[in-house]
Amino acid sequence: SVKSVTPPMVERRKGGTPLVCLTAYTTPVAAIADRHCDIILVGDSVGMVLHGLPSTLGVTLEMMILHGKAVRRGVEKALLVVDMPFGTYEESPEQAFRNAARLVAETGCAAVKLEGGVTMAETIRFLTRRGIPVMAHVGLTPQAVNSFGGYKVQGRGEDGERIVADARAVAEAGAFSVVLEKVPDALARRITAEVPIPTIGIGASAACDGQVLVIDDMLGMFTAFRPKFVKRYAELGHSAEAAVAAYAEDVRARAFPAADHVFGDGADMSSLITP
Ligand code: KIV
Ligand code: NA
Q1: Residues classed as catalytic
Q2: Residue 248 resides in a domain
Q3: Where in the sequence is the active site (predicted)?
């Protein structure tokens, strides 16, 4: 079997070749990501990307477990991290441990991710001391959208010190890495230089120790909105639209199914086409 990436291996990559991370929510997409990524994140972005929710606030532990199990089946080598959804960890370290343990036990992920800095440090310490590696997430933390009043850049000007303190606190508490979302480039550079664990940027800086994107964003499959930090590497949404339109046209014109797609009486005909 292929040796898989572990949280300590990720932590040792500080300052090295950038860590490559993408989200995944399904087995086949996870299998593609696994061939190229160091880390695969089952993000609570799944709620917006695949379930049509208006924010990540309605995502449940059950949704994360279902998608976590699906992704696990597609992953052989990358480190699998599953997001803790809103309301499953903020109350107490004990609540966080109980729910993180379910994610680990039921999905087979090796680590969990949760949002928050100074406020969540005690919880991060509680989990890491009890065998659950934690990836932290500071800067724009989407589960706090109502407190922020929108998905705004965080840490501009003097507010930068707050994000620095958050990043320091999660590193000190034992997180093996930290996602830095939607903060100024210079701030992300400074935090990357000052904290001892790898920073994984999204809308942050090329100087981070790694990068993460939501896979449906970079594939052009999620198009409801497009943050500035998303680089589109494909336009699968357009391809899918054109394919569905062509199918509809074929069906209405009785051009599909064609001779290739229907069965004769011969016993020798296989019903499967090799890929
Ligand atoms: O939910 C998610 O996809 C995330 C990443 C964008 C970091 O938290
Ligand atoms: Na998330």
Answers
A1: 181
A2: no
A3: 181
